[in-house]
Amino acid sequence: MKRINIIISALAISVLAASCAKESPSKSEVEAGFPNRFQGEIPEVSFSAGKATIDDKTYSIYVDTKVTVSGLGDNLDKVVIGVISSQKADFSNPKSTSLEISEDGTYDVRVLVNANSTYYLQASVSTPYGCSYSDAVKGSAPDVPFYAKVAGKWEGVVTSLATKDEYTSTITILPDKEDPENVCYVCDIEPYYVSKGLTYEKTGYNVIQASIDAENQQIVIATGSDMTLGGLLFYATDLEGKVVGQATLKLSEDGSSLVRAEAFYTVAEGEPEDWYSPAEYKKK
Q1: Are 85 and 137 in contact (CB under 8 A)?
Q2: Domain range spanning residue 182?
Q3: Binning pLDDT at 50, 70 and 90, where does residue 57 land?
Q4: What is the Cβ-side half-sphere exposure of residue 100, based on CA atoms within 13 angstroms?
Q5: For a Cys-Cys bond, which of 32, 36, 158, 263 suits 41, CB 3.0-4.6 Å?
Q6: Into how many domains does the chain fold?
C-alpha cells in the first residue's frame, strides 16, 4: 500500500509540472476578455469653478462651473457628466448635479452650495464602461444677508387676548426693492382681517413698513405704523396692555423662526380693535 501511494504522488507531481510549463497568457490576451474600461476608453474630465454667488431673486447660493470632457468613443450611447458637492473633503454626504451629453465639449453646470460654509467640488463623467473624476477644488460660500434670511412666508398661531379666538397666521416679509438692507414690509400681520379675506395679495392692504436691524437679527415695527387699511394703525404693547415703542420679529439662531415677544392691537378711527398675543412664526 505504501508503494502505491508513492507512485500516485509521483504522477501528481508530474502532471503539475507539465501544467506549469505551459506559457502564461500575454497582457493583450488578458485585456481582450475585459470590458473596454480596461483599454483606456473612459473619457477624461476636467472643470473650472467660479466664485459662490447669491441669487438676487431666490437668495440661494450657486457656483457656476465649466466641465470639459474629451475622449468619448463612437459607440457610447449614454454619457452623464456631473459636479459633486460636499461640505467634507472626503465627499461624504454628497450632492450631485448631472447632465447627459453625447459628444466631447465644455458644458455649463450650476451647483447650489450652503450659505456661510466651506465646500468641495469635483466633476465626474460616467459611461457604460466606468467613471472618471477630475481633481477636487475647495471654496467658501458667503453668508446671505439678513434680509434674505427673513424674506418669504412664516406661519404661527396668534390668540386674540380679548376674545380668546385662535388664528393660524401666515405673514410675509418682503424686502424693499430699493433699500432691502434697511427696509422691509410685513404683510398680513392682522389675522382677523386675513380671516375676512383682506390680505395684502388680494387688496394691497394689511401691510406695515418696518425697519431691518441686521446687527440684532430682527425686524422692527414702530408703534403707530399705518397698515394702509382704512387708516388702521399698529400699536405694540406689553402683556398688560401698556403701549411700548416697537414690536420686533427676532430671527432664531438656527434661522427657523421669527419670534414676536410683544403683543399688539390695532386702532381704526381712534378706537382700539382686537388685541393679539405674542407669537412664534415658523418658516414655510
Answers
A1: no
A2: 146-283
A3: confident
A4: 4
A5: 36
A6: 2
Return the closest-CA partner of residue 27 out of 38, 37, 14. Answer: 38
89, 107, 141 — which closes off a domain? 141
More confident residue, 205 or 187: 187
Q: 14 pLDDT exceeds 80?
A: no
Q: DSSP 3-state helix, strand, coil percentages of the chain (rounded to 5)? A: 15, 45, 35
Q: What is the pLDDT of residues 143-174, one digit of tens each?
A: 999 999 999 999 999 999 999 999 999 999 99
pLDDT for residue 268:
83
Q: Is residue 4 part of a domain?
A: no
Buried b (16+ CB within 10 A) or exposed e, 96-110: ebeeebeeeeeeebe
In 3D space, the residue among 51, 112, 124 whose CA is nearest the CA of residue 87 turns out to be: 112
pLDDT at 1 over 80: no
Does 273 or 75 have the greater pLDDT score?
273
Beta-carbon contacts of residue 264 (< 8 Å; ≥ 6 apart)? 189, 234, 235, 236, 237, 247, 275, 276
**Spatial separation of the C-alpha atoms in residues 41 and 59, rounded to whole Å:** 42
Residue 174, beta-bridge partner list: 185
Can you tell me which residue has the cell 427673513? 150
- Region 90-102: mean pLDDT is 94
